[in-house]
User: Fold this.
Amino acid sequence: MTAVITGVGAVSAFGVGARALFDGLAEGRSGISRIRSFDASTFPTHVAGEVPVPHVETGWLGDALGNPAIADELGAAGALRDRKIAWGLIAAREAWTHARCDEGERNAALVLALGLEQALLEDFSGIYEPGRIAWEREHGEGVRFRTPVDLTARAVHTLLGLHGPTTVNASACAAGALAVAHAASLIERGAEDIVVCGAADSMINPLGLGGMCRLGAPSPRDELDACRPFDRRRDGLVIGEGAAVFVVEHETRARARGARVLARVVGWGSTQDGYRATAPRPDGAAARVAMERAIARAARAGVAATSIGYINAHGTGTPLNDPAECRAIHGAFGAHAVHVAVSSIKGAVGHLMAAAGALELAASLLAFERDVLPGTANHQERDPECDVDVIGETPRAARVDALLSSSFGFGGQNASVVLGRPA
Amino acid sequence: MTRVAITDVAARGPYRAGTAPAEEPLASQRARKMMSGAAYLAACALAELVGKLAPSAAERAELGYFLGVGGSAGALDDVTALLDASFVDGAFSLPRFGDRGLAACNPLLAFQLMNNFTMCHGAILESLGGPNGALFSRGAGTIAALGEAHHAVRSGACARAIAGGADVATHPVTLAELARDGHLGRGLVPADGAALVALAASTGRDDVVLDGCAHASGRGRALVEALNDAFARALRAATSSSADTRDAAPTWAREDLDSVGHIALSAWGPPAAEALRAYAAARFPFATLVDVSTRGETLAGGTAFALIAAVELLRSPSLEVVRSARPARAVVLSLGVDGDPGVILLSRGGAA
Assistant:
């Protein structure tokens, strides 16, 4: 039972909607901007792939969802301080509508990848004392300290009126790809007929951005072209935010209800580096195995490795990731590696962390929808250590029958997914 | 026919507030500084379990690991230092946080906060490289982790996999949430813990076999309806086939529920536990019952502790099942803080 994608929704630095993402990438633009959602003036970096909605207002979200009640409820609970909740809801609504889902689809399961909670540092004001936190004090009703990890998933479940089970993947930057793989696996093994899956994340908040800066992950250059994947001058990532949600169902079901198939999910694989908390394996060995597992599964589904013509890379633009990923590509594809076009969209939309893999799979649909492969924003001078066919800043017109998207998480989790062109 | 056996178990806890023993030495004390409490407990249990499995380096590279994980739980010393440097006149100052607060905390604080590190720290220490997933859990997510591990072994994606859950319900922020949502008032006793099981292809009739598991949505439903849905999904998981699953032979049929001899349950607090016990008494009137909730609620860990209890029941020396044609059967019932129920189907003995 092959799993197919029949609906997609996206929210990114290009704006709300999958079409905004496709248009932005097809035109070779960048969505990176100065941070407007909070005062980051004293932070080490001031740029991000921020969704161009500085503040999520209840009324705006209600209109975007066509459901003021759920927006009001979330707004009243203070939950909209966590931006990923809005992005996840909007993307889910778009995917559901795009797939023309209705009452017959409400038994769908939900598999959503979500980033960590947003710490609401201002909520500590009521119990903070110099040198200690007075937990023994009564906590007010409006005090949250953090948003629940699964709040977005629960809100999506309610918004779409789903009856199926909810699963939240918390596998950091690999989570989005793993959520889609999980959904495809549930369908393929007959556990579910239809799954709403994807990811939402935003670390464009004080502790999220600050924590990443403290790790030294973002580029130290405070410029709009700060993230330069596979470029000789690359020096770090740019944080992004957004969501991508898909409707995945088995092909027979999709055809029977007349749904348009956007892609077939034919392969997936995951591994762990088991190496270090702070760095990927330099040889890319575990990432390579994740790709190999995805390629092997695709081959069993009738999609040969040689039909994979495009790789949407993890491509963070960090000194360590990009060459390791290129080694993994060579290891996994062998002689075919030189025939595969590679790009990373992180220079254009930022690193969406838990949502990165899902948004990059959504972006990859551009290859099937418009026969265009996304470019690599800010990539001008290829690093000799990144010896693959990197698509530069200009998108490339090409028809490919299959593609692979990889995501590698902090902590060493690796995931690869292969999509096939619909028959 | 590939049936998936639970070959070994390991656990730390449940530890109620103030009852945890002195910390065990880890392979890397430097790594300990980056760990949340849950990551530490998971790493300890994982080290014990991997020690029992004694895998070669090549086997470690293929060993799967799927873990139900809870919320972030950074060390309070770091949070306090961060706030100390960020407050001005009793109020949090965003400019001050960016300017000084960040510099005051551990540079690797993010690695304490990221939920997946509850799994990854241990995986790094043990050099695990197989298929994996960190699934957020208030109970049901741990069932999903177990289901992924079960399928990974059953489909041949890996020869062995480890699955379970780990969480620290005594973390102050979690306690505040549990209090605010009324759980502490209703008698929930928070605890910390990690519980893991090792899975591999069954090799004999004496194995405790994980036949299937599933969770269901509890939202807007009566508990019985939600549990019935979870049972239906678990039976489907036990009987479903797939292109890369090496068997399609059903291991459970609906009528087999009538021969369940053992129930282990995990539920968030006395009201939920009472509801599950009532369900179990009505549905499985002749089954023995173990309620691990009484030992303390470990959130993402709770279901895994109940699973271990069920495995121990099935392994009981007094259980004369091996010579019988009918297998002994056990069910784990889970009801997490999110209200989503889960079901795990286990058996031992019977036809080979």
Notes: The longest strand of chain B covers residues 4-16. Residues 37-53 of chain B form the longest helix (17 residues).
